[in-house]
Specification:
Helix content is 36%, strand content 19%. By secondary structure, the protein is of the alpha/beta class. The strands form three sheets. The chain has a four-stranded mixed beta sheet with strand order 7-6-3-8, sandwiched between helices. The longest helix has 19 residues. β4 and β5 form a beta hairpin. It has six helices and eight strands, in the order βαααββββαββααβ.
Length: 199
């Protein structure tokens, strides 16, 4: 269903008629800047058919143009049905280690050798995908800890940010205490029963 954000714009519909009634018509002048001997021939070639010169066609064309301008100015919008969202009220922060130790290929993923980070990305990615109704955030830490994704219902973005994380992005060391401190800072205003940190 199409709706208009600024429906009041259509009050300007009679504006051209008001301008025509109030504004004086332009004065015709006989002064010419250039005289062309064969001007009548050029005018005959360039002019459209005689029926297009009729006042009816000109008024109809101007009215259509004015209406299209008003429709565009009224900001037409197509509004769909509201999507209901199941909200459980949990706020989950995932703190993922990107230090050098996560580069060790001492695990398996689907029967193939994989680094620790690859396994975390696979397992945590599936976990994020299943958290419908929860707000999920992502903290990445190495030498320093920072919030990669704040708490959000947009789980697809959080999962994409996790998959794009690389070893050493936050440094080679493991500042696990900084990651916990950052998580506490972002969860301290959340009710105690609804806040979770997955490290």
């Amino acid at each position: 269903m199409i709706q208009f954000a600024w429906i009041w714009v259509f009050l300007l519909l009679p504006l051209p008629l008001l301008v025509r009634a109030v504004w004086p018509p332009a004065r015709a002048t006989r002064e010419v800047a250039l005289t062309v001997p064969f001007f009548s021939t050029l005018a005959a070639l360039a002019s459209p058919p005689a029926r297009m010169h009729s006042a009816w066609w000109r008024i109809a064309g101007l009215f259509i143009i004015w209406m299209l301008l008003l429709v565009a100015a009224a900001r037409p919008q197509r509004l769909g049905d509201a999507d209901s969202m199941s909200v459980t009220g949990r706020d989950l922060l995932l703190a993922v280690d990107l230090s050098g130790s996560m580069e060790m290929p001492d695990l398996e993923l689907h029967g193939k050798p994989a680094t620790r980070l690859q396994v975390v990305q696979a397992v945590a990615g599936d976990f994020i995908a299943r958290r419908a109704g929860d707000r999920v955030g992502l903290i990445l830490f190495g030498k320093r800890a920072y919030v990669q994704t704040p708490l959000t219902f947009d789980r697809a973005t959080t999962r994409a940010m996790l998959e794009e994380a690389e070893i050493g992005l936050a440094g080679k060391e493991t500042a696990i205490g900084d990651a916990i401190a950052v998580a506490i800072k972002h969860l301290r205003d959340v009710p105690q029963d609804n806040r979770v940190l997955v490290l």
